[in-house]
């Protein structure tokens, strides 16, 4: 039985610009055949068993010929597999999607096209340039700078007379000729031009000039492929509409070391401020809540009048185990619920409970300060937490009353989305501006995974709070900044302040 091929436009670079249907195709695929202009972040949404095949093309450096790409896609589909052909921009805008589609249909393969945002429109928008504007351009024309045959020529006489915006894709190597031919055929030499390199990504750079000087400007500023070229008066709008490069963390790369299940909260905040989060989970949460000793204690939860949660993970695993055991929240009717911070309190709220106590300081010492004068010897405290947690809280509270520690999970070495060697190389090359640590475990495990703590001196190291900072210093690492509020928003505030 033949499979099916989806020709999917990945958009111009920013991974969130893919369509919902395009993302579904990534999630459902047996095989993904992808280009270099499709964001690597999109591949993290694939199923674990999905096969990845890279067929990227650079100028004069093709990993596969177009014929070979066609054969690969067809072969996988004829094996009965669902194939997502992931292409930068839109498959049908100079993406050779029409050729691939026809090749497959001629061989009896079912094909569906999922359009994408072309860089001709999206790339200009991220540079602050509307492709049309009532005052400047009522039409636009998208032209390839890469013709099929070397001896082919564009009709420069016609192009030079067009009144709308001209956008050249894949034309960077021909920029000098494009300018000369437009001027030579009557277009004014002072016509505004913008060259947008790596449009809509953290690497975006924009050079603005005129037909007369844009080539020299791009040489001076070091712009190369992939770039798009916009010619026309709409370029004048860039000064007022340039939203992307004005974001608070624009151009900054931040390594996120949290567990994969939790990294999205921090990553999304970095992304929304224009930064590039690089997710490298150094820890993985291993559930221990089904162990018999823990199960037995949860069954007796009514006996405790204080329950202290020191992490989101502890909340989730404890309550989910309660539910699995057929217990509902009425078991906690007489208990005072304590959360170490607002994020943990929010997690508790998901189970229709409100934390009674949240300390001012989001650390174990803060909890102790809140409780030491409230407790008596008659109280019983249950603390579901990580196996690696510090002993301070249990030891100090034990001096007042009975305390039972439930080790409902442990943190183990994570599995990075990107390879350790790749991350190590990026740090060594000073390509990562900030590394964020949200716990002592993330610090210890990153050092283990990288191998040499000296390398980390090439980035600014951000700590979520004093306990994490202490671990960093014990390992010989310099704390560049520590969050004043010991939570994710505290880290974001540090990043913004550093950028400013």
TrEMBL record:
Residues 265-492 form the Tetrapyrrole biosynthesis uroporphyrinogen III synthase domain. Residues 4-214 form the Tetrapyrrole methylase domain. Keywords: Methyltransferase, Porphyrin biosynthesis, S-adenosyl-L-methionine, Transferase. GO terms for molecular function: uroporphyrin-III C-methyltransferase activity; uroporphyrinogen-III synthase activity. PROSITE patterns: SUMT_1, SUMT_2. The keyword Methyltransferase applies. NCBIfam families: cobA_cysG_Cterm, PRK06136.1. Belongs to the precorrin methyltransferase family. This is uroporphyrinogen-III C-methyltransferase. It comes from Alkalibaculum sporogenes. The gene is cobA.
């Amino acid at each position: 039985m033949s499979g099916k091929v989806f020709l999917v436009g990945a958009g111009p670079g920013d991974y969130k610009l893919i369509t919902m249907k395009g993302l579904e195709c990534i999630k459902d695929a047996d095989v993904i055949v992808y280009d270099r202009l499709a964001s690597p972040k999109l591949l993290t949404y694939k199923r674990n068993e999905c096969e990845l095949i890279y067929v990227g093309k650079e100028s004069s450096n093709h990993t596969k010929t177009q014929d070979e790409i066609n054969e690969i896609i067809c072969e996988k589909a004829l094996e009965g597999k669902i194939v997502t052909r992931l292409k930068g921009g839109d498959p049908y805008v100079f993406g050779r999607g029409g050729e691939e589609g026809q090749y497959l249909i001629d061989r009896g393969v079912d094909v569906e096209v999922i359009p994408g945002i072309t860089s001709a429109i999206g790339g200009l928008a991220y540079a602050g340039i509307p492709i049309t504007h009532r005052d400047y351009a009522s039409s636009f024309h998208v032209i390839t700078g890469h013709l099929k045959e070397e001896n082919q020529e564009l009709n420069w006489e016609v192009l030079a007379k067009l009144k709308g915006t001209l956008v050249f894709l894949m034309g960077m190597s021909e920029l000098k000729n494009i300018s000369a031919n437009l001027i030579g055929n009557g277009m004014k030499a002072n016509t505004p031009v913008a060259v947008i390199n790596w449009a809509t990504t953290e690497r975006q750079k924009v050079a603005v000039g005129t037909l007369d000087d844009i080539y020299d400007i791009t040489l001076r500023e070091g712009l190369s492929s992939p770039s798009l070229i916009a010619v026309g008066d709409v370029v004048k709008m860039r000064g007022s509409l340039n939203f992307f490069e004005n974001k608070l963390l624009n151009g900054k790369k931040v390594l996120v070391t949290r567990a994969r299940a939790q990294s999205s909260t921090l990553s999304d905040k970095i992304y929304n401020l224009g930064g590039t989060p690089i997710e490298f989970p150094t820890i993985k949460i291993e559930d221990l809540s089904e162990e018999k000793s823990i199960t037995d204690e949860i069954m007796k939860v009514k006996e405790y009048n204080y329950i202290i949660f020191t992490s989101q993970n502890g909340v989730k695993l404890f309550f989910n185990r309660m539910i699995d055991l057929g217990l509902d929240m009425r078991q906690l009717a007489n208990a005072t619920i304590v959360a170490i911070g607002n994020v943990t309190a929010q997690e508790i709220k998901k189970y229709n409970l409100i934390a009674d106590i949240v300390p001012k300081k989001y650390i174990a010492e803060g909890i102790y300060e809140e409780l030491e004068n409230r407790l008596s010897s008659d109280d019983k405290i249950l603390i579901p937490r990580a196996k690696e947690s510090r002993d301070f809280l249990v030891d100090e509270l034990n001096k007042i009353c009975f305390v039972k520690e439930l080790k409902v999970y442990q943190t183990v070495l994570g599995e990075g989305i990107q390879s350790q060697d790749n991350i190590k190389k990026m740090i060594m090359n000073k390509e990562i501006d900030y590394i964020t640590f949200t716990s002592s475990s993330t610090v210890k495990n990153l050092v283990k995974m990288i191998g040499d703590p000296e390398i980390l001196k090439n980035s600014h190291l951000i700590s979520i709070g004093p306990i994490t900072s202490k671990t960093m210093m014990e390992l010989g690492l310099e704390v560049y900044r520590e969050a004043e509020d010991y939570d994710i928003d505290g880290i974001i505030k540090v990043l913004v302040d550093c950028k400013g």
